[in-house]
Specification:
single chain; 78% helix
């Protein structure tokens, strides 16, 4: 099945780069389901990924660095999830395509390795606001929150622990909210149960081959594909 291949690639890229499983899934799932429903499917799949990593890095978590952004994030994403089903599906797809193009442009041409952005209150709120809206609509809230937590934590282990706890709590809450609002439905269970083992397989493969590969090159190819996919869907 195509979803097995896509999910394995998503897990592989997540394992190699630490990011991107939700984005890869969202490149494919809108061909099967409405965008709003795709966000629910991705949310529950990513819940398991976040749970595994949050447990692994639990000793490094600083709760006070998670609670404030989490509170704002949940408030905004709640509003977005509630109003999402009433939005025009074709406009959402175009918005998702534009989001992919901007995301690709940022990672390919703006973000530099180890670059730190001075995180003022305004930039912090901007990251949380845009991420929570994208999460509510598309199930993808990672990119700007990576920037946020990179600047708010003291080391890599603390960063991984905090951001995975952040996404774990958010995924649990959003999944419940999407079930209540009939966005995540029983018929989605089959594709979720297929995708989770395939993603775990991708993570396992990544662990075995990561030392042999040029991660920077993989990152560039990944974001180039994302940008081209967004461009194709935008003009289609």
């Amino acid at each position: 099945m195509e979803i097995l291949f896509i999910s394995t690639i998503a897990g592989l890229l997540q394992g190699l780069t630490g990011f991107g499983a939700g984005i890869i899934l969202m490149l494919y799932l809108p061909y099967l389901y409405p965008v709003i429903q795709c966000s629910g499917i991705i949310g529950i799949i990513c819940l398991f990924l976040s749970l595994i990593m949050a447990l692994h890095y639990r000793k490094f978590i600083e709760l006070k660095k998670v609670l404030i952004p989490l509170s704002i994030y949940i408030l905004i994403s709640t509003i977005t999830i509630v109003i999402g089903p009433s939005l025009n599906s074709s406009y959402l797809k175009k918005g998702l395509s534009l989001f992919f193009i901007l995301l690709s442009f940022y990672f390919l041409f703006i973000k530099k390795k180890n670059t730190q952005i001075k995180m003022s209150i305004f930039i912090s709120l901007f990251c949380i606001l845009i991420s929570s809206i994208c999460d509510g609509l598309f199930g993808i809230g990672g990119p700007l929150m990576v920037i946020y937590f990179k600047n708010k934590t003291d080391n890599q282990n603390e960063y991984l622990g905090c951001i995975q706890l952040f996404f774990l709590v958010n995924c649990i809450y959003n999944t419940i909210l999407r079930i209540i609002n009939d966005i995540l439905l029983p018929q989605h269970l089959s594709i979720i149960l297929i995708s989770i083992p395939a993603i775990c397989l991708g993570l396992l493969i990544a662990k075995k081959i990561s030392y042999q590969l040029n991660i920077n090159f993989i990152n560039k190819i990944t974001y180039l594909i994302i940008g081209l996919s967004g461009l194709f869907n935008l003009i289609a």
